[in-house]
Amino acid sequence: MRRKKVLQFSKAPDGKQGLRLIAQLVRSTLHAQRSTLLGLGIACPGSVDEEGVVLADSPNLIGWKGTNIKQPLEKIFKIPVLIDNDANLAAWGEKCWGVGKNARNLIMLTLGTGIGGGIIINNQIYRGSHFYAGEIGHMKILPDGPKCSCGQKGCLEALASAPAIVQRYNTKTLKRYNVNTARDVFDKASGGDKIACEVVQETAHYLGISLASLINIFDPDVIIIGGGIAKAGNILFKPLRKVVRKNIMPHSLRRPAILPARLGEDAGLLGAAGLVLNP
Amino acid sequence: MRRKKVLQFSKAPDGKQGLRLIAQLVRSTLHAQRSTLLGLGIACPGSVDEEGVVLADSPNLIGWKGTNIKQPLEKIFKIPVLIDNDANLAAWGEKCWGVGKNARNLIMLTLGTGIGGGIIINNQIYRGSHFYAGEIGHMKILPDGPKCSCGQKGCLEALASAPAIVQRYNTKTLKRYNVNTARDVFDKASGGDKIACEVVQETAHYLGISLASLINIFDPDVIIIGGGIAKAGNILFKPLRKVVRKNIMPHSLRRPAILPARLGEDAGLLGAAGLVLNP
What we know:
The structure is a homodimer of 279-residue chains.
Chain A: H1 15-33, E1 40-44, H2 70-77, E2 81-85, H3 86-97, E3 106-111, E4 115-121, E5 124-125, H4 157-160, H5 162-172, H6 182-190, H7 194-218, E6 222-226, H8 234-247, E7 257-260, H9 267-277
Parallel strand pairs in A: 1-2, 3-6, 6-7
Antiparallel strand pairs in A: 3-4, 4-5
């Protein structure tokens, strides 16, 4: 049985406080359920090394740099604690229980406020040489394109993330029909709004170009698109697949399936559980 | 001791004839050297599957599609035959004996008439799900850029291969100072020719953009640049490293070394030998 509790972290000023909150949550959950704990799986919104140390501050993890998340929790609960980056674990979740079940090599993109990437190679999470692999949102797509959160220009994230979609629509309409979410833009496109259709088409173009490059480089079994934007369905996936087909090498035609994620916003959590069950 | 014999394949109309020529060459070499053969390593200028079957015709391998290269040679010589794509094996060569010796994850680009790519992950050649991985020359760099040999537009190969460099120079000079090789362009740039300098700068830009994306995606230990163009030395590598530094994510700064290959045009052959010695 799957149960979920949500704890707002906004009141944790740093890693030390945050760890205390996590320990409390685990303790209270255990107490309520009288269950045995096999292990703790943790999806972390930032890069962590093999010791379980947070490598850098990130927008959702301010004040955690250098915090060892693994060791203190193992000490308290005397069980294995497994931890990884949330984008890696979203891919791992889809591999363990989602649309990536039969894939040996897969790439998952999570499209939301940012664009996260997770790479599975030979049935294992690929972390890179310094635990920074998978920054697919920061592939360069449009030289001298719009500024990205990372400080560079023309990254995929600056072109196809939710805020990028919203901003492009609002700019094109001169803010006459201000929208707040990417979903609004997709809804308007479904309703026939011309400018919204144009923005969706552009998004499919930028995303499709980057998927084509990824396919040419990785030759994966499947590419999985998750995050809020993936819910847009066919209005995004149809033009997206068309752009990919147009831009991959002829021998790759129709090879890797491009599929919406199955596990929704829990992909990372389920991936963390998967890490405990299939380490 | 290393000895090399060269056999022109132009007279082999297809795979069957080609195999016969290879067998003759091996036999005569063995005879001359009275040596024992540990195994045969073969670097193939096209994709091959795990059975040793050529997957498609390619510019240097016309009429070979479907030819099993491994089995007949194993039958004749009664030794293990190991075969892989030449770009993969160039990377493997540099990993076994070249500048990639200490790298667990590395990417090698061979810049010549085309742009080949080889990827080593966790100390193994990464071949992808259908033996087509590593087509780094076909990353999309410039949407609607010049036409590429693969039929698409704006691929790295169409911007930074030797013919692309030559063509850009000749176009910019309105063919007044027609050059024939990329080396001519680099020589002219070294001599201060303004247009040649511009072309080299552009080449470094396109190549640097793609390396930055690869670093953000793979987080490798090292990126190796081989092929004729790599011999250009600092006039290419200095601006190239600058472009990469400017375009990778801040946390990656100065992480992966970008190094010229050490093994020259024999990287693929040495990689094939490496495959026999470290299969």
